[in-house]
Amino acid sequence: MPQIAITFPDGKTRSYERGVTGQQIAQSISSGLAKEVLAVSVNGEVWDLFRPIESDASIRLHKWADDEAKRTYWHSSAHLMAEAIESVFPGTKFGIGPPIENGFYYDIDMGDHSITSDDLSRLEKKMEELSKRDAPYRREVIGWNDAVEYFQKKNDPYKLELLDGLKGEQITLYHQGEFTDLCFGPHIPSTAKIKAIKLLSVAGAYWRGNEKNKMLQRIYGITFPTQKELDEHLFRLEEAKRRDHRKLGAELELFLITPKVGGGLPIWLPKGTIVRETLENFLRSEQRKRGYLPVVTPHIGNLNLYKTSGHYPYYKESQFAPIVVEDEEYLLKPMNCPHHHQIYMSKPRSYRDLPLRLAEFGTVYRYEQSGELNGLTRVRSFTVDDSHMYVRQDQLKDELCDVIDLIQLVFSTLGFKDFKTRLSFRDPKNMEKFGGEDAMWEQSEKDIKEAADLMKLNYYIGIGEAAFYGPKIDFMVQDALNRTWQLGTVQVDYVMPERFKLEYTGSDGLKHRPVIIHRAPFGSLERFIGVLIEHFAGEFPLWLSPVHCAVLPITDSQHEYAKSVCARLTQAGIRVELDDRNEKVGYKIRDWETKKVPFMLVLGEKERAGQTVAVRQHKKGDLGAMNLDAFRDKISKAIMDKSITI
Ligand SMILES: [Zn+2]
Ligand SMILES: [Zn+2]
């Protein structure tokens, strides 16, 4: 038999008989691996494990932990669900059934029948039964005419329409059990690997996303190799609902979004504003220590500014239409950068003036379609903790280290232990996508990598992920539910200094261009706080809590004492609320518990007489009586220390 060379991710090569499959390769390594593997990448393309490899190739075997494996697994589960649907509801017409970030869906046409929750359980049972049959998935390559004939016979108009777009091409069909689908694949070897099944919901979806087309029913589901993983996933879904920042934002009176003001335009209520200002002040004070200079710029700017920067017309669709004032056009500012560049240009700069670090909590406006808006995470107005640092090329690495250090401090202070970093570099195969000079790119990518190593970042390199104007560092944070959020960003920019003709006089007496670093540790304050609300489930760490402490007198006789307690704590900078409602103290405690306030001070006759406070901590209950000054000092210190737990 002719041999082919298979190269593994570690660079080692082994020879196999031509026509070897991913499954056989896995088996040749170990039977344990063969059991776990779900798909194989062949020269970067994900294949079925059972598809013969006909020539030399580099491969990667994918186990469940890989996204490639999950997608293949969930896509195969969509086929299994389709088989169950066809068996329980014969005559159903099928649209498309792709994998998604978590699970899969299938769009189906059942005529007049609307899927009920009983139907979903019936389908789940059927899928379990079909999975146990351990039917192999089979790939078949056929001619276009044969495929058309097949789906005509089956009377499936949606598949025929899809085939219309593939005219003349070779078509692949996938079979498992009784079911056949038009599909590019890939799929897992057999249905038995799909062990734990949950069909989650049904929604309406227009065929091909076009509202002129028929509305189909979309069934969402998720599957896992073990029941334990399914249970954990369902628990996380429930938790995500409980932690939803839109729900908590209303319950905790943090922010408001009302159509009377407009979609995507959040209004910060007093409690939310305190959280926001506390974060701003934290960053401001850190920035002051690092030599940043504060600036404030207006919310609109002359359109020509954005023509110079190149943001207009290239990002026209994501901006609000210009405003005409006295024959001049103005834009609601989509970013703060060009305003800051004007400050740089307002006077001559010498090499001694650099680095110049301008910082602003600058509100920007983006046009998002109403269907895309979502709480605080997708909005039309948001505030960036923006800074532009104008540096010499020889200062770039040190500045990057300082920015990374600041972002690490922000994340660790907020208790985000796990964050990954992507160094987003240019794709050498696709140079025309990126502006600026080659030598500068090479130098700055080297500087970024060295800074990342120096600062011990846990990073990977994203080839082709750079912005057109320069390489960047993106920070990806894992929240309490293990969801990944891209938050902070640091971008190196060679294009804007050129476009705005920014200069400084070097030690050689000649004019040079500075490099710009754009950086925002929070990114958007709105989105950041949305993520924090969900991460903490509304239970902010003490220093960020809108109210540190509620004071609860038991009866009217303690009102005067309660007022003096409030006054003394307020004077020490502690955020206090007095609850003098005419309610039983038990009721008040339960109420403040739902408001997630970290501390309650219950004041009865004993406390008044002894000038003490009975302290209760959120979720921990009674901590006993304490001298008022002792409590004040303890809580003040905890606020100062920004401790996550108290
Ligand atoms: Zn498929
Ligand atoms: Zn910028």
Short description:
By secondary structure, the protein is an alpha+beta fold. The chain has 20 helices and 33 strands. It has an 8-stranded mixed beta sheet, with helices on both faces.
List keywords for this structure.
Threonyl-tRNA Synthetase, Chain A, domain 2; Ubiquitin-like (UB roll); alpha+beta; five-stranded mixed beta sheet; binds zinc ion
Can you walk through the features of this model?
36% of the residues are buried. The protein folds into 4 domains: 3-59, Ubiquitin-like (UB roll) (Roll); 68-240, Threonyl-trna Synthetase, Chain A, domain 2 (Threonyl-tRNA Synthetase, Chain A, domain 2, 2-Layer Sandwich), CATH 3.30.980.10; 255-297 and 336-535, BirA Bifunctional Protein, domain 2 (2-Layer Sandwich); 542-641, Rossmann fold (3-Layer(aba) Sandwich). The strands form 8 sheets. The protein has an 8-stranded mixed beta sheet with strand order 16-20-21-28-25-24-22-23, sandwiched between helices. Strands 2-1-5-3-4 form a 5-stranded mixed beta sheet. The termini are far apart. It is an alpha+beta fold and 646 residues long. One zinc ion binds next to loops.
